[in-house]
Specification:
- By secondary structure, this protein is α+β, with helices and mostly antiparallel strands.
- It has one domain.
- The protein contains four helices and 16 strands.
- The strands form four sheets. The chain has a five-stranded antiparallel β-sheet, with helices on both faces. The protein has a five-stranded antiparallel β-sheet with strand order 8-7-4-10-9. Strands 1-5-6 form a three-stranded mixed β-sheet.
- The longest helix is centred in the first third of the chain and has 13 residues.
C-alpha cells in the first residue's frame, strides 16, 4: 500500500495551486530550456548549490510524494517510488518543510548521512553533497506558466522562482519555488 505525503495544509489552497487547475500559459520543457539559454546569453545564469541539512528516509516502493509549498500549495507529485528511492524533507519552516522523492542513483550522488542515528520514524539527517547547479530567476515579464518537469509532472513557475539546471545533464531542468531556493541553496557567484 502506498502512502502519500501531504503536509498539513488546507485542501482549498492545494486545489487552487494545482497546475491542472491554473489558467497559466502552457510551455513545453524545450521552451523552458530555451528560456534558460536566453537567460544565459543575457548573463543572468548563476551558480548555486544546495547546502541546508535535510532529513531523509527510504521510500516504500509504490509510494507517491506530493510536494506542497506552504502558502502556495502543490508544487509537484512524484512518480511511484522504486526500490531504493528516498523521500527527502527540507528543513525550511517558510516552505512548510516540503518533501520530495529522489531516485536511488541521484540520492547516492547528492546526499550523505551525517552519522546521526535515524529516528523511530525512519528519518535521518543528511548533508547535500554540494552538487553545483545553474539557475536563473524568473522575471515578471516571463509571467506565470506551467510546464512538465523531466519526471513527467506538471509544475507552475512564477516570477521570483528559480529555474534550475544540472550542468552535467541539461535535460534535468526544473522549477524551485522562490522561498525554497532562498532557504536551501547557497548562491556561489
Amino acid at each position: 500500500m502506498s502512502r502519500t505525503a501531504v503536509l498539513a495544509f488546507g485542501l482549498g489552497a492545494l486545489l487552487m495551486s494545482d497546475p491542472a487547475q491554473t489558467s497559466a500559459r502552457e510551455r513545453s520543457l524545450d521552451e523552458v530550456r530555451t528560456l534558460f539559454k536566453e537567460a544565459e546569453s543575457r548573463g543572468l545564469v548563476r551558480m548555486a548549490r544546495k547546502t541546508m541539512l535535510v532529513d531523509a528516509r527510504p521510500a516504500t516502493p509504490g509510494e507517491v510524494i506530493v510536494t506542497v509549498i506552504a502558502g502556495e500549495g502543490k508544487e509537484t507529485k512524484s512518480k511511484p517510488a522504486a526500490k531504493g528511492d528516498w523521500v527527502v524533507r527540507n528543513r525550511c519552516e517558510p516552505t512548510g518543510n516540503e518533501e520530495y522523492l529522489v531516485a536511488a542513483d541521484k540520492f547516492k550522488e547528492r546526499y550523505r548521512a551525517t552519522g546521526k542515528a535515524a529516528g523511530k520514524d525512519g528519518w535521518q539527517e543528511h548533508r547535500p553533497e554540494g552538487n553545483v547547479m545553474r539557475f536563473f530567476v524568473l522575471k515578471p515579464q516571463h509571467g506565470e506558466f506551467v510546464f512538465t518537469a523531466p519526471w513527467g509532472e506538471r509544475m507552475v513557475a512564477k516570477p521570483g522562482d528559480a529555474i534550475v539546471q544540472d550542468p552535467e545533464s541539461p535535460e534535468d531542468t526544473y522549477r524551485v519555488a522562490a522561498a525554497a531556493f532562498a532557504c536551501t541553496y547557497e548562491v556561489l557567484d
